[in-house]
């Protein structure tokens, strides 16, 4: 009876702690949940049914900030912030996932506390405290920010904090992760595990965005590339954009892959319908995609066959059906990369193509309407 009372008093199950130094082969990950009260229980049951040994959050576990015009997003108070985490943690689908697998992760902007949050966010200590309480993965992150790493025999998982030290998004010379974290990251990459997974909230390899948000600062992206040239064997994971994709970047001494899974409970398609298809396939169509962009709710999976030295990756829908699949040879992550010669040329072509597609999306429709109006007016006036 006393035990039952204790359980009731505690209320929320604390979940499994991450236990290191054992072989891991099955990893699932995802981001962006619980915005505007959206839920998608099926997807959390699907993740559990896939039987990952670890599940990684890549940010926007909850949307702590509130939608309020004219500023669009404003921070919330501690009570409502905590309540959002607790409501989700108490849900049947999340309890089921917690009982199935180890869970860890990092925040992105909305669970950090504010849309597009950076180093200047005044409630960042609270954001850190609440996300670590929610994750409760047994890790000790007693430094600025919440970057961390775990080692599972020949696999290292590195989680980067792209909010705590981040310069303003409009700062062209800005840095995304801060000197302290750069020094730590280089040290982490020096260890000898065969495969290293770097997970963070923001997409790294985006060449088709005109805005400053939703990506690393350009200088930081290039700095990360240099590090990856020096320390290969890395697979990048990211979230944030509310669709899923797999990028294969040939612009390094070895091939770099980036897997993006975003939108567990909402996606660009569930929010914007066909408009999202138009933008992502016309305006943002020129990337290094392997397969299509998947615009619906999704989670990501990584399955490592240590004997065959291959990694099978997929982006799956709410019902566990793979929508993007690819097999990576671990050797491929170590190069040498035969495509590197074409890399810079590709970048220039990408930029021109992107300018053309921006023209097609934003200017061409107006030109066509103008032309049609002129033709109509001319015809109309000629008839008199
Ligand atoms: Fe999000």
From TrEMBL:
InterPro entries: Metallo-depent_PP-like, PhoD-like_MPP, PhoD-like_sf
Species name: Stentor coeruleus
Top-level taxon: Eukaryota
Presence of the UniProt keyword Plastid in the record: no
CDD domains noted in UniProt: MPP_PhoD (cd07389)
Protein name: PhoD-like phosphatase metallophosphatase domain-containing protein
Assigned keywords, A-Z: Membrane, Signal, Transmembrane, Transmembrane helix
Lineage start: Eukaryota, Sar, Alveolata, Ciliophora, Postciliodesmatophora
Signal peptide (residue range): 1-15
Keyword Disulfide bond: no
Segments traversing the membrane: 355-377
All residue ranges annotated as the PhoD-like phosphatase metallophosphatase domain in the record: 28-312
């Amino acid at each position: 009876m006393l035990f039952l009372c204790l359980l009731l008093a505690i209320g929320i199950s604390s979940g499994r702690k991450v236990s290191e130094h054992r072989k891991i082969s099955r990893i699932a990950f995802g981001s962006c949940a619980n915005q505007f009260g959206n839920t998608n229980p099926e997807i959390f049951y699907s993740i559990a049914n896939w039987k990952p040994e670890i599940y990684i959050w890549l940010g926007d576990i909850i949307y702590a900030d509130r939608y309020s015009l004219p500023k669009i997003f404003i921070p919330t108070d501690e009570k409502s912030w905590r309540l959002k985490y607790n409501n989700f943690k108490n849900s049947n689908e999340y309890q089921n996932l917690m009982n199935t697998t180890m869970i860890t992760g990092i925040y992105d902007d909305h669970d950090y506390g504010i849309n597009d949050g950076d180093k200047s966010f005044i409630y960042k200590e609270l954001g850190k405290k609440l996300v670590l309480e929610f994750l409760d993965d047994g890790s000790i992150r007693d430094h600025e920010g919440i970057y961390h790493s775990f080692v599972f025999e020949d696999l290292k998982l590195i989680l980067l904090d792209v909010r705590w030290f981040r310069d303003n998004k409009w700062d062209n010379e800005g840095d995304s992760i801060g000197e302290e974290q750069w020094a730590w990251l280089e040290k982490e990459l020096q260890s000898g595990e065969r495969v290293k997974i770097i997970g963070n909230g923001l997409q790294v390899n985006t060449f088709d965005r005109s805005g400053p948000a939703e990506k690393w600062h350009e200088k930081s992206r290039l700095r990360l590339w240099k590090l990856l040239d020096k320390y290969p064997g890395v697979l990048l994971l990211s979230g944030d954009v509310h669709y899923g994709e797999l990028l294969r970047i040939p612009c390094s001494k070895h091939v770099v892959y980036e897997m993006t899974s975003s939108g567990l409970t909402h996606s660009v398609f569930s929010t914007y319908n066909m408009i999202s298809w138009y933008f992502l396939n016309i305006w943002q169509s020129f990337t290094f995609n392997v397969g299509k962009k998947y615009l619906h709710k999704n989670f990501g999976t990584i399955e490592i066959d240590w004997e065959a030295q291959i990694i099978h990756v997929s982006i799956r829908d709410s019902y566990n059906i793979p929508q993007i699949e690819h097999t990576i040879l671990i050797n491929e992550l170590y190069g040498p990369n035969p495509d590197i010669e074409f890399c810079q040329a590709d970048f220039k072509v990408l930029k021109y193509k992107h300018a053309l597609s921006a023209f097609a999306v934003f200017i061409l429709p107006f030109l066509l309407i103008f032309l049609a109006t002129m033709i109509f007016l001319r015809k109309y006036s000629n008839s008199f």
